[in-house]
Amino acid sequence: MRTHPIPEREPGPGREPTMQRQSNNVNQPNAVRHPITLHWRQEQRTIQLEVPEGEYILRSFEEQGESLPFSCRNGCCTACAVRVIHGAIDQREALGLSRALRAQGYGLLCVARATGPLEVETQDEDEVYELQFGRHFGRGKVRPGIPLDDE
Question: What pLDDT does 134 receive?
Answer without folding.
Answer: 76
